[in-house]
Automatic annotation (TrEMBL):
Subcellular location: Endomembrane system; Membrane
Record-linked InterPro entries: Oxoglu/Fe-dep_dioxygenase_dom (IPR005123), P4HA-like (IPR045054), Pro_4_hyd_alph (IPR006620), Pro_4_hyd_alph_FE2OG_OXY (IPR044862), ShKT_dom (IPR003582)
GO molecular function: iron ion binding; L-ascorbic acid binding; procollagen-proline 4-dioxygenase activity
Organism phylogeny: Eukaryota, Sar, Stramenopiles, Ochrophyta, Bacillariophyta
Residues of the Fe2OG dioxygenase domain: 330-436
Keywords of this entry: Dioxygenase, Iron, Membrane, Metal-binding, Oxidoreductase, Signal, Transmembrane, Transmembrane helix
Cofactors that this protein relies on: L-ascorbate
Listed Pfam families: 2OG-FeII_Oxy_3, ShK
ShKT domain ranges (all copies): 35-71, 142-179
GO cellular component, one term: membrane
The keyword DNA damage appears for this protein: no
Gene3D superfamilies for this protein: q2cbj1_9rhob like domain
Organism: Ditylum brightwellii
Principal location listed in the UniProt entry: membrane
Name assigned to this protein: Fe2OG dioxygenase domain-containing protein
Length: 448
């Protein structure tokens, strides 16, 4: 696949990106060189927003070109052509309109100062905005919206503000060199509330286990006979009395991070519906670069848009939120999986360190669902927990943390795990990851 080369030393700068958030943000722009690009799958835009253009470029950059690639066309003044002096009088006295749209006597304008602002704007755009990653989401928006921007900037208006004035730093961003303020996904997102503080992880798991002992269905999943078992948990939580109450012995669990099973978290019908949704959407193999991943051989698809709105999916999401106490906005979309005979996912961790400095924060919990009984193989194994292994059983859910109780932003290395090879038959499953902060708002804005 051949893409047009970036032009240089002209008044038009073409910027081609495999950056999902930015490409999504400027999908309405058209460039003649890119008009032929198309998407070959209805979920291309959703995948692009999720970051698949970078994660799976071998597939995405061929089959989702329209969603992954876009461009910017901008002339040297990056927006309205800039005036060097006041030209438009608003009355017969030589007055001109100012930022507050009032007719005033024009300030003395130093034409050389205006030219200097324009030259600095050009250098700023070319040497900073078009290069540095922090501007990736705002390159298409960084424009002088008014032909007087450079004049106003030359007389110090960038630092002035009032309710009646235009917002110089946004409407004249190149002249004021403030393009970063146009980023809707900027630092303000980092101020969203963390759902956990130190100690909350253990408290959540303890509450789930305690509620299970009470056998009050409304406090667990709402599914009849949904037994909850702690296969691994911190030693300090366990006592002999508690073991007697629950019918468990000292040997029934590992001393380590929490790992729970819910025997019947999903009904048989719900499992069948999730499998059907995955079939309808079309799962694809995981890629590493332009080749199939050698560590993950399964296929998957994200349950976004209409799939996410399916009544069964909505009910499952609400149920998980009720059990964990984590708000739905912190949930990623469900990932629908399929493992053919011989397929596997080698040891890995669901925690992604890059998320620490992203608006949504890190993944704190994984909920994994088995959607069918597998004839042989396909278990989930935690090597660092004495090879604790779970055999797939239709409707069963696993719940474990990716972070530490004392620091819910830091990885708990002990919960690395693997999907063992399917030896006979097929394995259908689903993943759901919960974040420490609002994920859905960030995703909906294309800020991933």
């Amino acid at each position: 696949m051949k893409f047009p080369a970036r032009t240089a030393a002209t008044t038009t700068a073409l910027l081609f990106l495999a950056n999902s958030a930015f490409a999504h943000g400027i999908s309405g722009l058209q460039c003649p060189e890119l008009e032929h690009l198309t998407d070959n799958h209805p979920d291309c835009q959703s995948w692009s927003r999720r970051g698949e253009c970078e994660a799976n470029p071998g597939y995405m950059l061929i089959n989702c070109q329209k969603s992954c690639f876009s461009c910017i066309e901008s002339d040297v003044d990056f927006g309205e052509k800039q005036k060097l002096y006041y030209q438009d009088e608003c009355d017969n006295n030589g007055n001109v309109k100012d930022l507050e749209d009032k007719c005033i006597k024009p300030a003395v304008v130093d034409e050389l100062a205006v030219k200097d602002v324009i030259q600095q704007s050009i250098r700023y755009i070319k040497n900073e905005v078009m290069i540095h990653e922090k501007y990736s989401r705002v390159r298409s928006k960084c424009r002088n919206d008014h032909d007087m921007c450079s004049i106003w900037a030359s007389v110090g208006k960038c630092e002035m503000s009032s309710p009646q004035m235009i917002d110089m730093k946004k409407e004249c961003a190149p002249a004021c060199q403030t393009c970063e303020l146009l980023d809707e996904c900027g630092p303000h997102f980092l101020n969203s509330t963390n759902v956990w503080k130190p100690g909350d992880l253990n408290q959540m798991f303890e509450q789930i286990v305690d509620n299970a002992k009470k056998k009050t269905k409304e406090n667990i999943s709402g599914i009849e006979d949904d037994k909850v078992t702690a296969h691994s948990r911190p030693y300090h939580y366990h006592t002999s009395e508690e073991a007697g109450d629950s019918g468990e012995s000292d040997q029934d669990y590992h001393d380590g991070p929490w790992v729970l099973t819910f025997d019947n978290f999903l009904s048989s019908k719900e499992c069948d519906i999730l499998i059907s949704l995955g079939d309808q959407l079309g799962r694809t193999r995981s890629l590493a670069g332009d080749k199939y991943s050698s560590s993950r051989t399964s296929s998957h698809v994200w349950c976004t848009e209409s799939c996410d709105l399916h009544p069964t999916v909505r009910e499952i999401i609400q149920r998980i939120s009720k059990v964990t106490g984590v708000p739905e906005v912190n949930f990623e979309h469900i990932q629908l999986l399929k493992y053919e005979e011989g397929q596997f996912y080698k040891t890995h961790h669901d925690y992604i360190s890059e998320h620490r400095n992203m608006p949504e924060g890190v993944r704190i919990l994984t909920m994994f669902f088995y959607l069918n009984d597998v004839e042989d193989g396909g278990g989930t194994r935690f090597r660092k927990l004495d090879d604790l292994t779970f055999t797939p059983r239709k409707g069963m859910a696993l719940l474990w943390p990716s972070v530490l109780d004392e620091n819910p932003h830091s990885i708990d290395q002990r919960t690395s795990h693997e999907a063992m090879p399917v030896l006979k038959g097929k394995k259908y499953a689903a993943n759901l990851w919960l974040h420490i902060r609002d994920f859905r708002s960030v995703f909906d804005k294309g800020c991933m």
